[in-house]
Amino acid sequence: MAPHPRAGRGWRIVVSATALMVLVSTGFGWYQLRAFTDGLTTSDALGDGPRSQDGATNVLLIGLDSRKDQQGNDLPQAILDQLHAGDGEEGGYNTNTLILLHVPDDGSKITAFSIPRDDYVPVKGIPDNDHVKIKEAYGLEKYYTEQRLTATGVTDKQTLETKGREAGRAETLQTVRDFLGVPIDRFAEINLAGFYDVAQALGGVDVCLNHPVDDDYSGASFPAGPQSLNASQALAFVRQRHGLDNGDLDRTHRQQAFLVSAMHKLQSAGTFVNPGKLQNLLDVAKQDVVLSSGWDIGSYAQQLGKVAGSTTEFQTLPVVRYDTIDGQDVNIVDIPAIRAQVRAAFGVPEPTTTSPAKPPTSTVDVVNAGETPGLATDVSKALIADGFAAGTVGNATSRDGTDSSVTYGPGADVDARTASALLGDLNIAPDRTLPSGHIRIVLGRTFTPPASSNASAKNFVMQSGPSTRAASPGTARPTATSTPATPTPDQGSPIDGGTVPCVD
């Protein structure tokens, strides 16, 4: 038998929403652990994406707000009633919890970044969308994948569900990877019932609130101060967002507090040395968790052992401001600043160039495929200020479609990549019909200029925004502005895993 885990290992189980409990259950023995993993649902959604090169491991934890089981069937109504979660059609397949966990290879501090679910970010490959709320990437890609499969004659419900979910996972992983600018090595996914089952297996959790709450939507009704919550109450605690001063950001802090509390519960309850308790948690993982395939549990357990005594710090990614696009409340984020913050925390060096970037020489044509008046003119001016040659400006034709894109003629590939990066990493493709040295930019229906960027977006910020131009009803409007209409949202202070924190 392997030695019992040290107390500091408890966080691993909780942080991965029961997935990491698989990795540290050394008290169960290798044979039992291998038998457990043989029965776990795994996914190939990571594909051949980039991996960390420094020995560290980045794990994306995905909390799926779905009222359905792994087969796509509605959860039993009795469970939904316990969860205060409505019916099987509510929540869809939103990823309401996204946490990127960085486990270093040198025994130093573990860092976890929570991604607010309404962050408005670029996506690739989702029809009619170049930006979405990050929580929507999974469900939208799942839907469109199922539609494509159905059109080819696939009718089996389980096949559609399995392939749709796999596509949703892949889209979520790609979106987070592009957003944060760091590799993802592994991921773990848990559904709504899984949070409940974890709390149930733990016998409840201890939390602390700064203020009393009473919310009919989530079922959260708690006094201020320290208290113990049963499984149903714990789920209400992590789901509440109505009636909180900071809305979803406060809910993010609740999720972090839950993970820390569960960590301490594991440490104090002797779970790792109690086969019965450990088996209950492993059963939860088999039922509610999906892990990325190819996870070398032995090597990963050794890596976790190096950081067993270190602290875990939870941070929430910052939001520039709240806004409304197409009738939806969204978080406007500064992607370059966030990438720099995450890379610095993970010890990933900034990309370097071997030679100074050459100024652009291509002529850029900009067309507007949305309904925001003057958007093409503003973007054209910003790109011209950054060195591009002025081309034509106008409205898109049916040939251009409704998605944002950057196409280029011969010799303009480098400048096309520059323009794409400045405008939020738009899709790029060559176009043989364009003249040499020309770029054509289509601003799609959901195009939103970045909150900031290295060059052009700064010019754009001073020239456009909600304060200078009104959008047509129901259409996306420019959201970059030099004078935010609301104060910058407070993402809160980092949460140290050493103690159970009091939260709002």
Properties at a glance:
single chain; alpha/beta; Aminopeptidase; eight-stranded mixed beta sheet; five-stranded mixed beta sheet; disordered N terminus
Output the CATH topology of the largest domain.
Aminopeptidase
Number of structural domains: 2
Please indicate the percent range of residues in DSSP E strands (runs of 2 or more): 15-25%
Number of strands: 22
The quaternary structure here is: single chain
Helix content: 25-40%
- What is the CATH C level class of the largest domain, in words? Alpha Beta
Radius of gyration: 24 Å
Put simply, the count of helices is 15
User: What's the rounded overall pLDDT mean?
Assistant: 77
- Give the overall silhouette: globular
Biggest sheet character:
8 strands, mixed
Structural class, please?
Answer: alpha/beta
Termini Cα gap: 43 Å
Major β-sheet strand ordering: 1-12-7-2-3-4-13-21
CATH superfamily of the largest domain: LCP protein
CATH architecture descriptor text of the largest domain: 3-Layer(aba) Sandwich
The low-confidence runs, each spanning 5 or more residues with pLDDT under 50, are 1-31, 452-485
Topology (elements, then pairings):
Blueprint: H1 10-15, H2 21-24, H3 30-38, E1 41-43, E2 57-64, H4 77-83, E3 95-103, E4 110-114, E5 120-122, E6 131-133, H5 137-151, H6 157-180, E7 186-191, H7 192-202, E8 205-209, E9 213-215, E10 220-222, E11 225-229, H8 231-239, H9 247-269, H10 275-288, E12 289-292, H11 297-306, E13 312-316, E14 321-325, E15 328-332, H12 335-346, E16 363-368, H13 375-385, E17 389-395, E18 405-408, H14 413-422, E19 428-430, E20 438-443, H15 456-463, E21 495-496, E22 502-503
Parallel strand pairs: 1-12, 2-7, 4-13, 8-22, 16-17, 16-20, 18-19
Antiparallel strand pairs: 2-3, 3-4, 5-6, 7-12, 8-11, 9-10, 13-21, 14-15, 18-20
